[in-house]
Design a protein that fits this description.
The structure holds two protein chains of two kinds. Chain A is mainly α. Chain A contains nine helices and two strands; from the N terminus they run ββααααααααα. The chains are: A mainly alpha, B alpha/beta.
């Protein structure tokens, strides 16, 4: 039932509308893996385990795992498996505060935007049009290599795969992870936890609830009273 | 006018380009408005304007939606000829119909007469080329009035005792958020004169656009069109005349010059499909911004104009100014949540008067407000403390900032050039900036930072953090792009004349912040728009360029 990153699916990620897969998530250790991820099943589990260590959570205040930040990143890596690609949500409203949900109608990309995002995600792969400043290693490969290196390190230091390790060990190991890779994952974990749910993370606004943040507000905005009295929540 | 494709080609649809397009099209000229970015307004120029493709969504901002994207158009920056060159994101603005006015706060102060008479009011500054503008406040005033009416500016006439006399604003100030109110009270208690910031944001239904509902996402593009970007105001109106053709996803790569080198015949551009196109026009207006306009002039070099177009003075790209923006961030015990509502709602001009120090001319306009949202906030926090700090939410919930727009003096070595090796997605050399802070500018920061902290403390802040962002990050991110095609009467000491025309070329005009000879003590957008209006009116009728 697992469909790995090598398989090109037209529209497997949950929440992408027509053609949505009816398959159930699978599990690797404690990590739930949605069907049809772009990353392989093990790499997805590694990413989830890493983001969990970066933004930990508990019942009172959910973190990256409950917000499903790993799926946010996986959705970005597989953005072009949908048409339009899942890069820019539509507008102006999410539908959560009245009106229709326009966010979920992703916007078609312009020619230059498509070139930009394909180059950024897939890499230049020797295509001259993508090498305006030389070769580019795509985000997918940077993640695959970074996660594999993390796992190798974990096996050396902890004697087990990173996704199998206890949270204390996973957190402790962060100090030895490549700084540039870790910063990139940190920023994506933050985006996936507190970004709009339409991009695949912040499930049911768990990230916003965790920090008492209202999220998007169109078309209602804030009243004069709400602005003057933020202490009332 | 003659047998060209258009009477006027305008490059860039931002603050200046949008206004110029409206003025010319409404007076009967055929206008091509070329915009490198996309059109996020499905109903733009089609009857009643409704909605947009913007949303209350931090992620599309992080992905550079309708914004300058350093992945495809990097810039390079250094603080001196021998300093390390950094490649990446430098002073990005909106790349979309409406340009920088789409994501700006909407701050619309006017300048003072003294801003345009810096040399004669305050004298020379050693190591800088401080000059008077070739025009004065009375030359600008009628154009200010008309721009304010068109884009819709809220404000309270007479509330700023340091401002030039003026009439009523088109609409009253809107509801302020708590941060602005607290800081204004603090400033008032110290004897200062805070007032509602003049802003191009609808406080009432105005010219077909709704009142702002205070969603607070101004920096991501206004979803409801309540903010008066040029897209939803003058460009929409220009398109409705039927005489303005908006060409989006069109990257202009060079000016096409006639063999004499004294006239342009039009522009060359790469269209939405990637094909090269040429467009002819009687006049060309460059309104790309003070980084991209000199880049285009330099990239338009020909064998007979090896230093670029309009550059006989050698000053194209020189006198780059950004303003010095620095802030005292007040940390409050109580909830503020400045993200509820507009980013800035109050301001004060008390420091725009000289305090007699010989070390600097004066301070600048002060903004009271500022905000941050959780994705940016989270990335600011150190990873190890992320969870604790996010739950506490100090940046998001308990801070309000006092920030100053200091005048950076014009220095000839601060400049924009073509980078010799870095290219953009269109294959063009990118802009390389060399910019260092003059001792005058540092003296302003040193003198006024403690005064900004005092205001925050008077407002009730339990502590303050002094933030000089350009020093903290190494690259100014002020969004105020000025100088580089400075206007003046002497063709050997300036690039454009008092109407914004290149001295060297009889039909090429600049309508962006590049024409500023000095940076003034105020947010620049409204003044750029008044200047653009004036330039366009002059092109249409040089004998009587009335607003």
């Amino acid at each position: 039932m697992f469909l790995g990153g090598a398989l090109v699916l037209l529209c497997a990620p949950p929440g992408c509308g027509e053609g949505e897969s009816a398959e159930q998530p699978s599990h690797l250790g404690e990590w739930e893996i949605p069907p049809g991820t772009t990353l392989s099943q093990e790499r997805y589990a590694l990413l989830a385990a890493l983001m969990d260590a970066i933004i930990p959570g508990d019942a009172a205040s959910p973190g990256a795992t409950i917000a499903r930040a790993a799926f946010y990143l996986d959705s970005l890596l597989g953005a072009f498996r949908s048409d339009p690609p899942r890069i820019f949500a539509g507008g102006p409203n999410s539908g959560r505060h009245g009106g229709a949900d326009q966010f979920s109608h992703f916007q078609p990309l312009t020619r230059v935007e498509e070139l930009r995002w394909r180059t950024f995600l897939e890499g230049s792969n020797g295509i001259p049009e993508r090498e305006w400043n030389g070769p580019v290693v795509g985000l997918l490969r940077r993640y695959e290599e970074g996660l594999d290196a993390l796992n190798t390190l974990s096996k050396e230091v902890l004697g087990q795969a990173y996704w199998q390790a206890a949270v204390e060990d996973r957190t402790h190991l962060l100090g030895d992870v490549d700084e540039g890779f870790l910063q990139m994952v940190y920023e994506h974990a933050v985006e996936g936890t507190y970004g709009d749910p339409v991009y695949g993370g912040n499930v049911e606004q768990a990230g916003w609830r965790a920090i008492d943040y209202e999220g998007d507000r169109q078309p209602i905005g804030f009243s004069a009273h709400e602005m003057a009295h933020p202490e009332e929540g | 006018m003659g047998a060209t494709d258009f009477d006027v080609a305008i490059v860039g649809s931002g603050a200046g380009g949008g206004v110029a397009a409206y003025v010319l099209a409404s007076r009967g000229l055929r206008v091509a408005l070329l915009e490198k970015g996309r059109n996020p307004y499905p109903t733009l120029g089609k009857g009643k304007l409704q909605g947009s493709l913007f949303g209350n969504d931090e992620i599309r901002g992080r992905r550079y939606y309708a914004f300058h994207d350093p992945f495809i158009e990097p810039r390079t920056f250094r603080t001196g000829d021998a300093a390390t060159l950094v490649t990446g994101e430098v002073q990005g603005l909106g790349v979309t119909v409406g340009g920088g006015t789409v994501q700006y706060d909407g701050d619309c102060p006017r300048v003072q007469q003294a801003c345009l008479r810096l040399r004669s009011t305050f004298g020379e500054v050693e190591g800088a080329d401080v000059v008077d503008w070739p025009i004065g406040y009375p030359d600008l005033a009628p154009y200010y009035d008309e721009v304010e009416r068109l884009i819709g500016v809220q404000g309270l006439a007479g509330a700023d005792p340091f401002a030039e006399p003026r009439g009523e604003y088109p609409m009253p100030p809107g509801y302020p958020p708590k941060g602005g109110l607290l800081l204004a009270e603090g400033a008032k208690s110290l004897g200062y004169h805070p007032h509602p910031m003049p802003m191009a944001v609808n406080s009432i239904f105005y010219r077909g656009r709704p009142a702002c509902v205070n969603c607070g996402f101004c920096a991501f593009g206004c979803p409801s069109n309540s903010k008066g970007s040029t897209a939803v105001t003058v460009i929409h109106d220009a398109l409705l005349t039927g005489r303005c053709t908006l060409i989006t996803e069109a990257c202009v790569t060079r000016l096409e010059m006639e063999p004499s080198g004294e006239r342009a015949s039009g522009v060359r551009y790469i269209d939405a499909k990637g094909a090269e196109q040429t467009l002819t026009a009687q006049h060309v207006i460059l309104a790309c911004n003070a980084i991209e306009t000199p880049r285009l002039l330099l990239a338009s070099a020909t064998p007979s104009l090896p230093d670029g177009v309009g550059n006989s003075s050698g000053l194209v790209g020189r006198y780059l100014m950004f303003h010095i923006v620095f802030a005292a961030v007040g940390v409050f015990a109580e909830e503020i949540r400045t993200y509820r509502g507009r980013i800035v709602t109050h301001s004060m001009a008390d420091f725009t008067v000289s305090d007699g120090s010989p070390d600097y001319v004066r301070g600048g306009y002060v903004e009271l407000g500022g905000q941050i949202r959780p994705v940016s906030e989270g990335i600011e926090y150190p990873m190890g403390l992320h969870k604790t700090l996010m739950v506490d939410g100090t940046y998001r919930r308990r801070i309000a900032a006092v920030s100053m727009m200091g005048e950076d003096v014009p220095v000839i070595d601060n400049r924009v050039e073509l980078d010799p090796s870095v290219r953009d997605v269109y294959g063009r050399p990118v802009a390389r900036m060399t910019y260092a802070r003059h001792p005058h500018d540092q003296a302003v920061v040193d003198r006024y930072m403690p005064k900004l902290s005092e205001i925050a403390k008077a407002a009730g802040a339990k502590s303050t953090v002094e933030n000089d962002d350009a020093v903290r990050t190494g690259i100014p991110d002020t969004k105020h792009l000025l100088g580089t095609t400075r206007m003046g009467t002497d063709p050997t000491k300036s690039v454009t004349n008092e109407w914004g025309r290149l001295h060297d070329v009889e039909n090429v005009w600049v309508a962006d912040g590049g024409v500023y000879p000095t940076s003034t003590a105020f947010n620049p957008t409204l003044t750029q728009q008044a200047l653009a209006y004036r330039t366009a009116a002059f092109i249409e009728n040089p004998a009587d360029p009335k607003p």
